[in-house]
Specification:
106 residues, mainly alpha, 0% strand
Length: 106
């Protein structure tokens, strides 16, 4: 595929397709961070911090990493929401919104 020969509509469609895929993989990557932190995998792979690990491997900002790790901590007693975070099936912002009103029984 030569991108120079694509029509505007085809190019736009590719941008949408790749952008959606990037969002999905970023959510999946974020879901791995609590386990990476728990195992201290970033140290064994010679990264200075979890923030450096996430920035270099996943393109995540320090603030996003902190938000995901705080959210994972709050979800320890909510296994259904925690599973969604880990799998990347939902974005962490949506899960965070629900986490405020969810209880252990929900």
């Amino acid at each position: 595929m030569n991108i120079r020969t694509l029509t505007d509509a085809e190019l736009y469609k590719k941008c949408q397709e790749y952008g959606e895929a990037a969002r999905i993989w970023r959510r999946k990557f974020a879901g791995l961070l609590p386990e990476v932190m728990r195992r201290r995998l970033y140290k064994r792979k010679e990264f200075v911090s979890i923030h450096e690990f996430a920035a270099k491997l996943g393109g995540m900002s320090r603030e996003a990493v902190d938000k995901v790790l705080r959210l994972a901590e709050r979800l320890k007693d909510k296994p259904a929401l925690y599973a969604q975070l880990e799998s990347g099936s939902q974005g962490w912002s949506k899960i965070e919104t629900v986490a405020h009103i969810a209880s252990k029984e929900d």
